[in-house]
């Protein structure tokens, strides 16, 4: 399991928001949904994207943009076009009065826009939950990164665009997995660029000493690991592993194991029906009490409070997609 895949393994996209937009100029969308991570890919035409924090770019067919939340962004045909709608938390869509542009309407399954014949076609995929497993990944990303057409291996973007407008049994799960695939492919291409500055855990995955130990920890977090056992996986002495691991990853092996176990636990606790006891077994803690104590000590919040904070109630009047044109209540 490589480093990026490991961070996305286990609980991944669950009911991700996926929408296809068919647009003809003039158009402009203001996004303030505070989502932790969003992908925007252009199927045809072009779009200008500007982040509130830093970065702007023009996207053309085949480009993929990854935006790290929770800050907002604007996507439009040319720069400077006033927003026609504002999309807030829960995907509540509020039209902007007096924009003078054609209204956005529902155009079919997971599809909206200002005309069915729009030449600017975008597909947006949004991770709506703050999954703790991806915390290390999000910390490594800039507010905006772009991979140009042809730089991302595989047809994940094409598949996602095609499946976004379909409906059928299991379609939500299909879209979740395609979004995961597109994200992993995009990040792998980005981290491998010569000018990129990947985080320590990503570089360490390719190290002949640290890589085997890191993959062992990430693949089997419930195992009763010791530095000696990890050193055996790497084929080196305990001292050599501890020194090299700390140098590349930024923390000792056992500290990294604790961080990884608690990150997994934080995400698993959000699964429907999950109990602290079941999560404790999956991540290597002998009792629910042991997990609760470690979780509270390191994260400053109990597992129960973590669940309450991470799963707020959706806002009243939330639309299932921006195409529903609902306005958030005042």
Commentary on this structure:
It is a single chain. This protein is an alpha+beta fold. Helices cover 36% and strands 19% of the residues. It has a seven-stranded mixed β-sheet with strand order 10-11-1-12-3-6-13, covered by helices on one side. The chain has a six-stranded mixed β-sheet with strand order 5-4-7-2-8-9, with no helix packed on it. β8 (85-87) and β9 (93-95) form a beta hairpin. The longest helix has 21 residues, at 171-191. It is elongated, with a radius of gyration of 21 Å. It starts with a helix and ends in a 20-residue tail after the last helix.
Q: What keyword list fits this structure?
A:
13 strands; 330 residues; alpha+beta; seven-stranded mixed beta sheet; disordered C terminus
Summed up:
The protein has 330 residues and is α+β, with helices and mostly antiparallel strands. The protein has helices spanning 3-8, 135-139, 156-164, 171-191, 200-204, 210-219, 227-234, 238-249, 253-268, 276-283, 288-299, 303-310, and strands at residues 17-23, 28-31, 37-44, 46-51, 56-60, 64-68, 73-76, 85-87, 93-95, 105-108, 111-113, 120-127, 144-147.
